[in-house]
């Protein structure tokens, strides 16, 4: 693939696009959304600009693609932030005007279903950013999480190397958006236990690729992933969603990546802390710990079969848990298994 291009950075005072390419949840949860917008203004000094589908439910893929393209085309917009994830952005990316995106590179922030957009920009040669959700993270109940906001601030405004930090406390049980009063309450947090390292003691540095594991399976099914040659020397970043895929499904997806030859392309594999609680699956804390162990074992079993020499790091705080560290997508990551440190270049 070669070296991808980092888009120019935003500065405090700039106008930034706020879009809903996956799901128009701001229409359903305006109290959460407005909190996210307020923090975008007050904490980051940025002025959000909305589009016709930002607060619309049921917008079709062409309409959402139109808004995404317009956000990149506008010379007064310096970054693009997704409000939340969803489940059908894979139907939106074919309608984007790629010439406009290439000619007007801008930092794009999103995760979960936004893996579709991150991968699309990657294939256009542009670095994007895995993480950042106006509803989930900017609209976090109680107070902003300092690790999330420090990482997002660095990713938005700086271009330097940034050391990632293991969270001392983490959570995967959000407050219900259907109850506005809970916005004042801090979410449940659990003690952090640091990152878990497997594999050889060496330093791996390279561009990242990956995202939400279930979305990567969709992208493989539609043949929209880079080739093994294009990914050679990269760092794989993967995390699982709030749909809580079981260990068997996780194993099969990673195994299928191995069968495709993708796993062998990566010198290191960085795995996000698995989310193990959802409203329709309210697991106890011991059950959540067991869920995480089963998922780690499943990934390690597949990696051992297809790429036993890879450096593997588990429980890094990015993806669907709280806090959420921002990871450059297609940008540089350094995974130091000797010093047990991870740094990214924003």
UniProtKB/TrEMBL annotation:
UniProt KW Secreted keyword: no
Pfam family, one: Peptidase_S66C
CDD domains per record: Peptidase_S66_mccF_like
Domain LD-carboxypeptidase C-terminal: 205-335
Keyword Hydrolase belongs to the record: yes
Domain LD-carboxypeptidase N-terminal, first and last residues per copy: 16-131
Alphabetical list of InterPro entries matching this protein: Carboxypeptidase_A_C_sf, Class_I_gatase-like, LdcA_N, Peptidase_S66_N, Peptidase_S66C, S66_fam
Entry keywords, A to Z: Hydrolase
Annotated family: Belongs to the peptidase S66 family.
Protein name per Swiss-Prot or TrEMBL: LD-carboxypeptidase
Protein species of origin: Micromonospora tarensis
Organism lineage: Bacteria, Bacillati, Actinomycetota, Actinomycetes, Micromonosporales
């Amino acid at each position: 693939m070669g070296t991808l291009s980092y888009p120019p950075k935003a500065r405090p005072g700039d106008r930034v696009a706020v879009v809903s390419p996956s799901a128009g949840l701001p229409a359903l949860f305006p109290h959460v959304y407005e909190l996210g917008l307020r923090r975008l203004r007050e904490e980051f000094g940025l002025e959000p600009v909305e589009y016709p589908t930002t607060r619309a439910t049921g917008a079709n893929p062409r309409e959402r693609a139109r808004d995404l393209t317009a956000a990149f085309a506008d010379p007064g917009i310096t970054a693009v932030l997704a409000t939340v994830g969803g489940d059908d952005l894979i139907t939106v990316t074919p309608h984007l005007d790629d010439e406009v995106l290439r000619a007007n590179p801008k930092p794009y922030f999103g995760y979960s279903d936004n893996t579709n957009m991150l991968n699309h920009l990657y294939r256009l040669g542009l670095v994007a950013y895995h993480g950042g959700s106006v509803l989930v993270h900017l609209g976090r109940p109680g107070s902003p999480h300092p690790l999330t906001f420090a990482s997002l601030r660095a990713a938005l405004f700086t271009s330097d190397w940034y050391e990632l930090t293991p969270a001392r406390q983490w959570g995967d049980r959000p407050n219900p958006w259907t109850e506005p009063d809970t916005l004042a309450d801090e979410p449940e947090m659990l003690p952090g236990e640091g990152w878990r390292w497997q594999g050889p003691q060496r330093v791996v540095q390279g561009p990242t690729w990956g995202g939400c594991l279930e979305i990567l399976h969709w992208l493989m099914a539609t043949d929209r992933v880079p080739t093994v040659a294009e990914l050679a020397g990269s760092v794989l970043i993967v995390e699982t969603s709030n749909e809580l895929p079981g260990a068997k499904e996780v194993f099969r997806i990673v195994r299928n990546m191995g069968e495709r030859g993708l796993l062998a392309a990566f010198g290191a594999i960085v795995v996000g802390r698995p989310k193990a609680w959802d409203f329709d699956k309210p697991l106890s804390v011991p059950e959540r710990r067991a869920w995480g162990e089963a998922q780690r074992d499943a990934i390690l079993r597949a990696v051992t079969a297809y790429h036993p020499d890879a450096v593997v790091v588990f429980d890094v705080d990015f993806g669907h848990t709280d806090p959420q560290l921002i990871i450059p997508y297609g940008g540089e990551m350094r995974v130091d298994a000797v010093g047990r440190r991870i740094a990214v270049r924003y």
